[in-house]
Specification:
Layout (H helix, E strand, L loop, with lengths): L7 E8 L6 H11 L3 E8 L3 H16 L7 E5 L2 H5 L4 E4 L6 H13 L11 H25 L4 E4 L4 H11 L4 E4 L5 H15 L9 E8 L2 E9 L2 E2 L1 H11 L13 H7 L4 H10 L7 H4 L22 H20 L13 H8 L5 E8 L12 E9 L2 E4 L7 H22 L3 H10 L8 H15 L12
Parallel strand pairs: 1-2, 1-4, 2-3, 4-5, 5-6
Antiparallel strand pairs: 7-8, 8-9, 10-11, 11-12
């Protein structure tokens, strides 16, 4: 029996299959993988983009290391989902032009945002656009692939993963985010520096994760069975003032300009709360009042990523995708930093996998309410995705995390129940919005809703 005959068959429905990021990353990972025999169905409201990606996928498959994955562009969501083993959701709620308004309108009211897709006024309005979309997808999964494992990659991660579970309580869904990779890379760097050689990568570092998406912390760090927490604490103390520059491998200087950080926010949170912060500074800063970090991003070593950069980056990726489709350049089967392949293999009976994911709280975080979406480690195996008890945060930090988690839960309920009256008070309570005079907060909310009204369902258009 040859290697290809031993592969695990899997049908993957990719919702948002025209993606220029996650979809093409999955293609490269499948081409690199030796364990799965994948049939990938790509669905996107932009069908031409899904067709383009199907051609790119076929080119990746031709260069694969084992049995090639197959790619099909589907014209309907139902067609893509029917009988799927795994569903991957990676959509853009609205457009970059909508996201530009999520950033620009609050900025005019004195609220800077580095990302604007999770919390703060930008994250709130993005959620208003996205929750109805994820609700529709959840209903379609219930109808066409009720037993599928479902991976959500779309932000705001906590609210949208919660939407899937609220609409289809029996769904086998988790939210996947790579932010925690940042601290794992830091620890690998520290260990390699000590060893004087490149011995470790982020996959070698084990961390125990606590928190909610993009506001995550770790209270245990292991490498080769060695407790790395004292070493990491020493590293933070040594770089508390100067910071430590971090960019993602393989990214160009332009990317580093807009997405690189010096980890000064994370290091300062460690000083304040005594626990390492796991997410990147650009996300962490948005969970806290403007006066703490966002008032002076240059001082804190990060940038407010402009949406026009994202638009330029998208255009470049579209050009590269077209060149891949046409065969002008060859696909590279370079393994990404993502763990989705390992997760799928484990769920279908392969080697067990442990990693951080977003799931409803079933006791894995004892200081947050049951049912709220939390980010902790979980075990992936044939039994499904089972959260691991993560423990507790300090009282002061838990209060901040709980505040955001409660607001995310209430926002989800308000949208699903069309409770318009609840929306502005929740918007008003966010730490970035709270310092504004009430009249200014109301005007900002009204302007943001008006700017995104063309994307909102009819039942939400009167929320202002």
């Amino acid at each position: 029996m040859d290697d290809s005959d031993q592969k695990i068959p899997v049908s993957i429905a990719f919702v948002g299959g025209g993606s220029l990021n996650w979809a093409t990353g999955l293609m490269a990972d499948l081409a690199h993988d030796r364990q799965l025999a994948a049939e990938v169905r790509l669905y996107d409201i932009d069908h031409a983009a899904a067709c383009r990606n199907a051609e790119i996928g076929s080119r990746h498959a031709a260069a694969s290391r084992g049995r090639a994955a197959t790619y099909t562009a589907c014209e309907s969501l139902a067609e893509a989902l029917e009988g799927a083993d795994v569903v991957v959701i990676s959509i853009l709620p609205g457009s970059f032009e909508d996201m530009a308004q999520d950033i620009a309108i609050p900025a005019a009211f004195g609220i800077p945002q580095a990302v604007g897709d999770t919390v703060g006024p930008g994250g709130f309005v993005r959620a208003l656009r996205a929750i109805p979309m994820l609700a529709e997808i959840a209903r379609a999964i219930r109808a066409h692939a009720p037993n599928a494992f479902v991976c959500n990659l779309t932000n705001p991660m906590s609210v949208l993963t919660g939407t899937l579970h609220a609409v289809f309580p029996d769904i086998r869904a988790w939210g996947e985010c790579h932010e925690v990779t940042k601290i794992r890379r830091q620890v690998a760097h520290i260990a390699n520096t000590q060893a004087g050689a490149e011995r470790y990568g982020h996959r070698d570092v084990e961390v125990n994760v606590l928190g909610i998406n993009h506001f995550t912390f770790v209270n245990r760090i292991l490498l080769d069975g060695r407790d790395m927490m004292p070493t990491y604490e020493e590293f933070v103390r040594a770089h508390m003032q100067s910071g430590w520059a971090q960019t993602e491998p393989g990214k160009d200087a332009d990317y580093a300009t807009y997405f690189g950080t010096r980890n000064l926010v994370a290091f300062d949170l460690f000083r304040r709360f005594g626990i390492p912060a796991a997410a990147g500074d650009r996300h962490l800063a948005e969970f806290l009042p403007v006066a703490e970090y966002l008032h002076d991003p240059e001082q804190w070593g990060f940038t407010l990523t402009p949406v026009d950069y994202r638009v330029r980056d998208r255009a470049q990726k579209q050009q590269r995708a077209e060149a891949l489709r046409a065969g002008d350049i060859a696909p590279e089967a370079v393994r990404s930093d993502e763990a989705l392949i390992e997760q799928i293999v484990a769920l279908l009976g392969g080697e067990m996998h442990i990693g951080n994911v977003n799931l409803p709280n079933r006791g894995q975080m004892t200081d947050l309410p049951e049912g709220t979406i939390v980010e902790t480690n979980a075990v992936f195996s044939r039994r499904g995705v089972e959260p691991i008890c993560a423990g507790r945060l300090s009282q002061a930090l838990a209060a901040r995390v709980r505040d955001h988690a409660a607001r995310q839960d209430a926002l989800l309920r308000a949208v699903l129940e069309c409770d318009h009256a609840a929306l502005f008070p929740l918007f008003r309570e966010d730490p970035l919005v709270a310092p504004l005079p009430d009249s200014a907060a109301r005007e900002m909310f009204a302007q943001m809703l008006a700017a995104t009204a063309h994307v909102l369902p009819d039942e939400l258009k009167g929320a202002a």
